[in-house]
Amino acid sequence: MSGLRIAEQVRWAVEAAGVVLIHGATGETIAVGYPRAAIWDFLTRGEDCERIAAKLCAIAALEPAAARKLVFETVVQWREAGLIGG
Amino acid sequence: MANISLTSACNRECAYCFAGAERRLGVSHMSVATFERALDFLERSGIGEARLLGGEPTLHPEFPRLAGMAIARGLRVRVFSNGRMPEPALRWLESHPPESVAVLINVAAGDARQARALERLGNRVTLGLNIHSSAFDPGFLLDLIREYGLSPSLRFGLAHPSADASNRFLHPVHYQAVGTRLAGFLTAAREAGVEPSFDCGFVPCMFPPGSLEALGGAARDIGTRCSPVLDILPGGEVVSCYPLGALAREPLSDSDTAGALRGRFTARFAGYRKLGVFRECAVCQAPCHHGCLAASMQRLRPAASTVAKAEPTPARRWVIPYVDQPLAFWERIESEHGPHIREVYFPLPTEVAGSGRPPQPSAQLESFLKRSRLPRAVLVNPITLPQPVEEIAPPIIEALKRLIGEFGISSATVANLLLAARIRDALPALPLAASVLMDIAQPNQALMLKGICDTLVPASRVMRDLPALEALRAAFPGRIRLIVNEACLPGCPYRVQHFHEMGWGLARPGSLCEELLEREPWMRLTGAWVLPQHLHWLDGLADDWKLAGRVTLRDAPTYRRVLGAYVHRRALAPHEIGGGPASPIEPVEIDEEFYARTLRCGRRCHECTVCREYYDEGRSAASVRDSKRPVALEA
């Protein structure tokens, strides 16, 4: 999964406990805690899912398989919610 | 509560005005018919007060008539003014008793044009202060209340950002400094019998522990005031409040009530309410609405166009000097700070015109120009040229063409405006910067650069003068570049001859400020420098930062240390920044409050002892510190 794109109307802010995503059109707000907040952060920096999973292993002390599962499930969920495309 | 904005016209140019976006659309006055509808709306909503604002509401050509219409409906009138009122409006206000008319005048220290209204309106007036900097000094408010017999009350507001952040606003990072300063002042105010009140956006955590309790009822609203106030604009539209006006507005209907409108605006922004002005707000349990919504929304980041481009790229803002170091040094600079570096500047070869400084080592320059990937720019800035401009311009232009062709020079800095014009004619694609030596310090001078210079490096005498920089920012449409470590004395009378001697062959030029500084060493604290930790005071006033120091930063470790500190805003002392001859030479610590104070002091050194005392205290503190250092035992 590469070439992901943050949806045009999504804005986000870093919070003490993660990130908050806001859909500009609907006003819907999603609070994302760690370690999923880190996935969002890496996505906005242009990382692809494989690299994000590798980094999560280190920063969230996850097994490679668990990290990969978390990243892919999260991305699918965000895609369905219209937060990312691509 | 709802406000009626009678006009977008204003006779003051406050950099912090959050109605600026409306005002830039042009002057518009509310029609009498629209005002009637606004009064209907107030009545329908059960609101007993007509709050008239602007722009400057008294500049509405029919202000007395409109205010009279509100009184005729039995409404109390409250006018939000800057105090610079035309005579008819002032006469109308003073002819009505304080029970039916109140005036809130937002004051600025030393604004003589407000005095007439204060004198004539007396106890109808409550003073207001919009805080847009943590360096504010509210002490003059109590003096004004006493002097003019004003209402013993004060209203404090915070300068909030408009949705596009085009105004100067108080960034939440300064809230604690503001709260601390306010807490100290409010104790004195209450002792003087003056009751403070707070407009929207104040949060409890900006005040020192315990200080809110001491304020009693005045603190009641702190933390809970951010909701749709409803501003009715001159054209008849309604916005939640001015700062959010660009995001949502509705026409003033003939059936709506304030409650219904507030409900719709509240729902419109409900999602954003989860934000707060600080990232810690999300986990804070205090009974607080987390500050101004418009300020909170400034924390939001936009969607990236593609994730591949989403890596936040630091703006290329730093313009740094060439020093004669091997290519490896420049590669290291590139790897450490590359995305921050806008240009590396070097002098035009001396045989043409030079840069007005003694020649510096340049053995490695060609290698740098040929092989470094850092953008490079050229200086053509002797303070005086050795020949008339028309004679010297052609060879300079030829030299520039060669540098552009061979090395891809990206811009030039020029100290002579006529020469700049000739270069612009010959090389229209080459961006030009007006050198600090053009001594541009006033808006009228900035206008002279129009069509010729793309970047302005303001005179060093305004480097520590925020009002002057704000005026230049407003007057000059291009980029503003501030030199952070030059350290010359403001308006130095030795400067022209010193630069002349430097430019024309004297390796150790005279005409220096040394003797003066021996007599008055404290003057070193007044120089044109800003420490890395204080750059934030100038954010919004500068597009680029320039590091001087082709001589003082020649040593590679010093260069890297100073550049790294400035880029990452790590603290340095003034003697460590590689400044010029007027730099502080002793390790004086410069605290935030002192520095901020000098940014708006107006350089009235003849009647002020702040720098003098600070310097003396700083030196004795340093000597005490030194005397307490453990003495190293010899091996």
Overview of this protein structure:
- The complex is a heterodimer of chains A (86) and B (635).
- With 86 residues, chain A is an alpha+beta fold.
- Chain A has a single domain (5-85), classed as Arc Repressor Mutant, subunit A, CATH 1.10.10.
- Chain A contains three helices and five strands, in the order ββββαααβ.
- Chain A has helices spanning 36-44, 49-59, 64-80; strands spanning 5-6, 10-15, 18-23, 29-33, 84-85.
- In chain A, the strands form two sheets. Chain A has a three-stranded antiparallel β-sheet with strand order 2-3-4, with helices on one face. In chain A, strands 1-5 form a two-stranded antiparallel ribbon.
- In chain A, helix 1 (36-44) crosses helix 2 (49-59) and helix 2 crosses helix 3.
- The longest helix of chain A is centred in the C-terminal third of the chain and has 17 residues, at 64-80.
- Chain A is globular and about 35 Å long.
- Chain B has 635 residues and is α/β, with parallel strands linked by helices.
- Chain B folds into two domains: 3-271, Alpha-Beta Barrel (TIM Barrel); 313-490 and 528-572, Alpha-Beta Barrel (TIM Barrel).
- Chain B is 33% helix and 12% strand.
- Chain B has helices at residues 20-23, 32-44, 63-72, 87-94, 115-121, 139-148, 175-191, 211-215, 258-268, 293-297, 327-337, 365-371, 389-407, 417-426, 443-448, 466-475, 495-503, 514-519, 556-568, 592-598, 610-628, and strands at residues 3-5, 49-53, 76-81, 101-106, 125-131, 153-158, 195-198, 231-232, 237-239, 249-251, 318-321, 341-347, 376-380, 411-414, 432-434, 455-456, 479-483, 544-546.
- In chain B, the strands form two sheets. Chain B has a ten-stranded mixed β-sheet.
- In chain B, helix 12 links the parallel strand 12 and strand 13 (376-380).
- In chain B, helix 11 runs parallel beside helix 19 (556-568) and helix 13 (389-407) packs across helix 14 (417-426).
- The model of chain B is unreliable at 304-313 and 624-635 (pLDDT under 50).
